[in-house]
Amino acid sequence: MDPADRPADGGIAVLDSLVEDSMPLLPATSPLYGVTHLLGNYLTRREGFDRLYRLHFHGSEHERVVATLGLNLLRDLERSHRFFEGMQDTYDAVVQSRHLPPRELRKLSSQYFRRAVDHVPYAIKGWEHLP
Fold first, then answer.
1. What is the model's pTM?
2. Could you give the count of Cα atoms lying within 13 Å of 23 in the half-sphere of its Cβ?
């Protein structure tokens, strides 16, 4: 998909419209109704994706369809969110291990950083230049 064709919000508005159009078929207590609000904030985004995956595997027939379409719509947003969480994990690991010698700390941070970029679909070159 061309970057110019991607929605600015990562597809959240499209998912919101999909949920709204599916209201007659969804249970009144469906967790899908709150998913778009959770996805709209980076602090609650993980919970939004968790709900989509739970419904994708364990929801009613209509919830599964909407959740699957939502996950497909939000693939790029999920990828960037996983990178964001990976960078947070890297920061947390370094802060908690600041007592380690610098060489061990660099090794630890590079391991976490590699995990963080696993979700980035780009070729990253220059590992040898990282500290």
1. 0.77
2. 6
